[in-house]
Backbone:
């Protein structure tokens, strides 16, 4: 990669743009969570996840495949949904989509089973 | 007394290695007569030293051949001598062929069409991957895969054969009562169901370093060829390759990067004349075995891939590639690449390695 390319790549989204995006995401989360006294997705327990992060059948089928493939724990399962919710919030999307879940899975590498 | 029990008894005598033991039984015409011989008669055998004779006489006082054989057979273990129909025929031809083998599982006539797959215990991911793949394709072509149940390449060779419901034989460097390494206990059980565990050593023999070179001569001896996948400069797998040459077996090696330590030994083998292997046809052709074209298509054909998945898959190969490079090369967005990678991982087409590295599987 040339330096030029590097610079171009960095220009995709500016820090101030990202900041705006993060603030909006925070706002969404606060609105959704304030009745529980929370302000961020990370504070949700499994009960709140079940009530607030609504998954459709497509999402659930996808998660089932993920659980089977990566042999994740129940705790990891809720973590993935919470992270997926945050990714959706940052993208400005109301509902969790499979690609949000897929991205969330990519952030969990350590508890993968093994290589082969 | 029963011939087999006497073979077993003589085999236990210290100082009576395969060659000397064969000499003694040849002299007397049978193991039973050798076992029953007295000191004077034993002294008549050329090349049999006084210490070994004393060892035989001592053993006769303490050892009850028939009881011993019965005890072993009760454990579901067979004792094979070269007179048995299921003693591996290829093994009879070699120098110092083992007079007695302990066997768990079964050996079939078709196991004569055998190839050994050996290699490093500290294999690379690439090495393990191609071992599984080659082993699987070999069993699909009716070849029995023989290896040593060690960590790394050996384990992948057995697993590759079992995954394709093929036959596989493990030759151990310890007695059959011990499985070494211990994490391969379950694998060993599966091998018993689909082939055999074989050892030349009495049941309680621990996995001592000296045993392994001896064991390696059996691995190559059972087979018609030896495929070395990854081996460092000084590797036990190279001993197996040496035995193979001595025994007139074909030696095959998979080339590797010249910067890769685990390929130094294999690249050297190729330099010395081992056949370079890129696919199983290279092996089958050399041994005059028929190649059956693959029945199923490639893995990719079996699964419907999205456009993004296809782009990501095409950016990957067997060399680990970092996420950042995948993003850059595919020009896809973060979430597109992540979604594609997760889907591809679920389908088993891509594997993630530590450090956000991805390889095509």
Residues:
């Amino acid at each position: 990669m040339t330096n030029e390319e590097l610079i171009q790549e960095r220009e995709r989204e500016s820090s101030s743009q990202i900041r705006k995006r993060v603030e909006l995401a925070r706002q969404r989360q606060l609105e959704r969570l304030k009745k529980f006294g929370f302000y961020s997705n990370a504070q949700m327990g499994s009960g709140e996840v079940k009530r607030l992060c609504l998954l459709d059948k497509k999402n659930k089928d996808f998660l089932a495949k993920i659980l089977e493939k990566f042999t994740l724990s129940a705790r990891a399962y809720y973590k993935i949904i919470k992270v997926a919710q945050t990714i959706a919030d940052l993208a400005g999307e109301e509902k969790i989509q499979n690609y949000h879940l897929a991205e969330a899975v990519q952030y969990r590498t350590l508890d993968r089973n093994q290589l082969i | 007394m029963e011939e087999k029990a006497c073979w077993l008894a003589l085999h236990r005598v210290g100082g009576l290695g395969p060659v000397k033991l064969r000499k003694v039984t040849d002299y007397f015409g049978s193991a039973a007569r050798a076992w029953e011989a007295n000191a004077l008669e034993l002294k008549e055998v050329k090349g049999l030293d006084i210490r070994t004779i004393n060892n035989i006489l001592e053993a006769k006082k303490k050892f009850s051949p028939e009881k011993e054989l019965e005890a072993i057979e009760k454990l579901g273990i067979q004792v094979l001598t070269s007179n048995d129909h299921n003693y591996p025929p290829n093994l009879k031809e070699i120098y110092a062929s083992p007079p007695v083998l302990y066997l768990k599982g079964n050996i079939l006539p078709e196991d004569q069409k055998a190839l050994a797959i050996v290699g490093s215990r500290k294999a690379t991911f690439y090495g393990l991957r191609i071992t599984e793949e080659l082993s699987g394709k070999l069993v699909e072509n009716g070849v029995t895969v023989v290896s040593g149940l060690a960590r790394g390449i050996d384990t992948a060779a057995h697993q590759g054969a079992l995954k394709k419901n093929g036959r596989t034989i493990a030759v151990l460097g310890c007695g059959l009562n011990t499985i070494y390494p211990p994490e391969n206990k379950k694998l060993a059980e599966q091998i018993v169901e689909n082939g055999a565990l074989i050892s030349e050593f009495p049941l309680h023999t621990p996995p001592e370093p000296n045993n392994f070179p001896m064991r390696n001569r059996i691995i190559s001896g059972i087979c018609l060829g030896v495929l070395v996948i990854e081996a460092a400069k000084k590797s036990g797998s190279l001993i197996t390759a040496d035995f193979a040459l001595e025994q007139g077996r074909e030696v095959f090696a998979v080339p590797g990067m010249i910067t890769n330590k685990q390929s130094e030994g294999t690249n050297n083998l190729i330099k010395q004349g081992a056949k370079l292997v890129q696919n199983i046809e290279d092996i089958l052709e050399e041994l005059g075995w028929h190649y059956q074209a693959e029945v199923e298509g490639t893995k990719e054909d079996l699964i419907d891939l999205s456009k993004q998945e296809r782009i990501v898959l095409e950016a990957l190969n067997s060399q680990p590639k970092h996420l950042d490079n995948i993003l850059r090369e595919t020009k896809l967005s973060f979430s597109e690449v992540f979604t594609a990678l997760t889907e591809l991982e679920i389908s088993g087409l891509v594997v993630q390695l530590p450090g956000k590295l991805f390889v095509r599987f």
